[in-house]
Design a protein that fits this description.
Elements: H1 2-21, E1 23-27, H2 46-58, E2 68-78, E3 82-84, E4 93-95, E5 103-112, E6 115-125, H3 142-157
Parallel strand pairs: 1-2
Antiparallel strand pairs: 2-5, 3-4, 5-6
């Protein structure tokens, strides 16, 4: 039975990897991003921030129908809030307000097999991001995760075109 448990665990891990492999993320010139790196010596590094954004976006793969793939180029990142380095020495503090929403510039291609279903470049932001009830948690990247999840659901899963 022990061998069976190993096989089941391995199969689950492969299935999870296959789901996340449906979404690929590429960061284009991340050193030029508006606000993805703590430039004031406090908070997360660029590498840590991009790692978390990659994890968030790749996690959407489980919501794609089988056979579909999504390739996303992240062209710019502006995290919610602004840094206040002296507010919490030595770590600094990120102050979030309704005038500092998260913003991403993305280029994406959604395919099914070899057929292109959708492709575009757009800016993803929501000035009303603080009005949502799901904003009650205080984890790192909550606002960015919620914004990207809502965009993914509307644009990729439901196939709604950009507003505008």
């Amino acid at each position: 039975m022990r061998g069976g448990a190993v096989i089941v665990t391995l199969a689950c891990a492969l299935w999870a990897d296959a789901a996340s492999a449906q979404v690929t993320v590429r960061f284009v010139e991340p050193e030029r991003y508006t606000d993805a790196e703590n430039r004031l010596g406090s908070g997360l590094s660029l590498r840590a921030t991009l790692g978390e954004i990659r994890r968030i976006i790749e996690g959407f793969g489980r919501d794609l129908p089988p056979g579909r793939s999504l390739a996303i180029d992240v062209l710019d990142v502006d995290l919610a809030g602004v840094e206040r380095p002296g507010a919490n020495i030595p770590f600094g503090l990120r102050v979030v307000s309704d005038v500092t929403p998260p913003r991403f510039r993305l280029r994406y291609v959604l395919t099914e097999g070899r057929r292109r279903i959708a492709a575009a470049e757009e800016v993803v932001t929501d000035i009303n991001f603080l009005l949502r009830a799901s904003r009650l948690s205080s984890g790192a990247f909550d606002h960015e995760r919620d914004l990207l999840r809502d965009w993914f659901r509307r644009r990729i899963v439901e196939g709604r075109p950009p507003a505008g």
